[in-house]
Amino acid sequence: MAPPSHMRLGRSPSGRSVLRMENRIVNVGAGPAELFAQRVSAVEMHARQVIGDTAGRRYRFETGAELYYKAVPSRGGSYWKFQDAARFELWAVDLTAHRTQLVRVGPKLDYCLRDLRRVRTGPTVRRHRRFPACNQTASKREVTLGISVGWADAYPSTYPDNWIDVTGLSGCFAVVHRVDPLHHIFESNEVNNVSSKIVRLPFKPGPQRCPRLARPAASA
């Protein structure tokens, strides 16, 4: 999960003060993050993760992942999205910038999982998209979602639900972006699933005048 970016204050549909931001899920692994889903109801699909081996064989694994046909009226209709792909959190911090208490959680974030931006280079990074735009076909019986190696799925700060309610809050907080919070994707490395940024509320662009986390001491 890339760090939060393009932060700005805004208003939710109900008029609450919210901190809007851009977020990006980046595939830094050795293979695609791929889900194959099959319909189980009018608006739900049960998904399995597709993982290939070095011989080119592909296997499907049960992970508990689910897709839903989610309405996003301001973005052109409804889409098949991976439920609980990410979560936005707001944490209180102490004087050393360590997180002490969860204060707010943003609206649940559901993702198409797609190759939107190529953010890395190398021999394993595809030059062209393998997983294209979000599927909008309501009658679809099967859907494949994914992010290729070196590609990112990103959502701008203007996208619905890309915010945390900060009404009435003041002081320094940690904005945390957490990918796959319910562990429905098998990964080779779970350590890089969380990114954060320290901000002062009410938010203003520029220096935040907040404590910073000390970098770990270099090993001998």
Task: Provide a descriptive summary of the structure in words.
- By secondary structure, this protein is mainly beta.
- Helix content is 0%, strand content 49%.
- The chain has no helices and 14 strands.
- Strands 3, 4, 5, 6, 7, 8, 10, 13 and 14 form a 9-stranded antiparallel sheet that branches. Strands 1, 2, 9, 11 and 12 form a 5-stranded antiparallel sheet that branches.
- The protein is globular.
- 31% of the residues are buried.
Strand content: over 45%
Instruction: Give the overall average pLDDT.
Output: 94
Q: What is the H/E order?
A: EEEEEEEEEEEEEE
Give the N-to-C terminal Cα separation: 29 Å
Rounded to an integer in angstroms, the radius of gyration calculated over CA atoms is 19 Å
Helix-residue proportion:
under 10%
Helix-and-strand structural type: mainly beta
Looking at the structure, what is the overall shape?
globular
Q: Kindly state the number of beta strands.
A: 14
Number of helices: 0
Low-confidence segments, given as residue ranges, are none
Describe the sheet with the most strands. Answer: 9 strands, antiparallel
